[in-house]
Write a structure and sequence with these properties.
Radius of gyration: 23 Å
Number of helices: 15
Strand order of the largest sheet: 3-4-2-5-6-1-7
Shape: globular
Structural class: alpha/beta
CATH topology of the largest domain: Rossmann fold
Order of helices and strands: HHEHEHEHEHEHHEHEEHEHEHEEHEHEH
Largest sheet: 7 strands, parallel
Number of strands: 14
Distance between the termini: 93 Å
Length: about 400
């Protein structure tokens, strides 16, 4: 089946062809007709399967045939949890809509608000936004919603995890009652399903992969290693396997910075990206990594949903995430759009329970590997280590 079978306009089909795409992915096959129908849609698909185009293409088709947008108004709104992801979705909109006479824009926090207000003055057909900045703009009357026709909540589960539920409710209260609602996510938690009860009206439900499953295009395995040896093992893996582009996840910002310092001292080029970095720094760091000017990018989970790197080959969990679902989002940075990838976890004895929770969620036992040439600090499985209890010291014998 080709994109032309959906009835998309010639300018959109031309942009798709120029982007190098020839046939729709499974989520696109189901989502595009559903969105074009005008009904509410609730779609679940793994990260990297093309769900952005699944709502972007039909939205552009719909907007191209509609009325002209008024000043400070918007006709379609896409809400995203992070700045990086918002930027990348807007880039997709611009790519697929480049032959259309439509205006798109993106707004997010961490940068000056005045340029964004100026952008909205002339009206924007499709706006991609993070919740907090959108509310700021609304409070200044810089954005108005009376022309809004479609609302998209993308990565909705992540927005709830990041505490955006109150902001989302405030935004929903500002929107026209009559509109199309689209909810896209890699996973659907029970909280998400509760949210949809009041948001979506008889939605078309789409699920192209088992709930909370990891992408089949990603080969996954585990290295059991002492916590103090993780940094050394990471350096060994990168150098011994000649990996040139590696995304590494740590649990904390401090841990990310410390790991970067270790890698640099080991003559490996590395940079960190996390919440303490300014938007300008984050943008430059990400651009350098995408351009292969930096070998290793160390990130916290703020980047788990906001990175879209073509054919990224390796994702390393230096620390396992505390929330099992975040594991899926992390390894979802590789193996995207049909390419193959590797998701590798370095697991120490204090992370055994976290690993068990992940394996329960994805319904599979991850392969344990031993790296040839690297001498581990233990010779027994971590699960056995956890059961070993230190012996109580013997009381010294008393002399009579």
């Amino acid at each position: 089946m080709s994109f032309s079978s959906f009835g998309l306009s010639e300018p959109i089909l031309r942009a798709i062809e120029e982007s190098g795409y020839t046939k729709p992915t499974p989520i696109q096959l189901k989502a595009i007709p559903a969105v074009l129908s005008g009904k509410d849609v609730m779609a679940a698909a793994q990260t990297g399967t093309g769900k952005t185009a699944g709502f972007t293409l039909p939205l552009l088709q719909h907007l191209a045939g509609g009325p002209k947008v008024k000043g400070n108004h918007i006709r379609a709104l896409v809400l995203m949890p992070t700045r990086e992801l918002a930027v990348q979705v807007e880039q997709s909109v611009a790519t697929y809509g480049k032959h259309l006479s439509l205006k798109s824009g993106v707004v997010y926090g961490g940068v000056k608000i005045n340029p964004q207000m100026m952008k909205l003055r002339g009206g924007v057909d499709l706006l991609v936004a993070t919740p907090g900045r959108l509310l700021d703009l609304s409070s200044r009357n810089a954005v108005k919603f009376s022309q809004l026709e479609t609302l998209v909540l993308d990565e909705a589960d992540r927005m709830l995890d990041m505490g955006f539920i109150d902001d989302i409710r405030k935004i929903l209260a500002l929107l026209p009652k009559k509109r199309q609602n689209l909810l896209f996510s890699a996973t659907f938690s029970d909280d998400i399903r509760k949210l949809t009860d009041g948001l979506l009206k008889s939605p078309l439900q789409i699920e192209v992969n088992p709930r909370n499953s990891a992408a089949k295009s990603v080969k996954q395995w585990v290295y059991e290693v002492d916590k103090s040896k993780k940094s050394a093992l990471l350096s060994h893996l990168v150098r011994n396997n000649s990996w040139e582009q590696v995304l590494v996840f740590t649990r904390t910002k401090k841990g990310a910075d410390q790991l970067v310092q270790h890698l640099k001292s080991d003559n490996l080029s590395a940079v960190a990206i996390h919440g303490d970095k300014s938007q300008g720094v984050r943008t430059r760091v990400l651009s350098a990594f995408k351009a292969n000017k930096v070998r290793i990018l160390v990130a916290t989970d703020i980047a788990a949903r906001g990175l879209d790197i073509n054919e990224l080959p390796h994702v390393i969990n230096f620390d396992l995430p505390k929330v099992p679902e975040d594991y899926i989002h992390r390894i979802g940075r590789t193996g995207r759009a049909g390419s193959q990838g590797e998701g590798i976890s370095l697991v120490s004895a204090d992370e055994v329970k976290l690993l068990s929770a992940i394996e329960t969620l994805i319904r599979q036992t991850l392969v344990r590997e031993v790296e040839t040439g690297f001498i581990p600090t233990h010779n027994v499985p971590l699960t056995r280590q956890m059961k070993v209890r230190p012996k109580k010291p013997k009381k010294p014998k008393q002399r009579r």
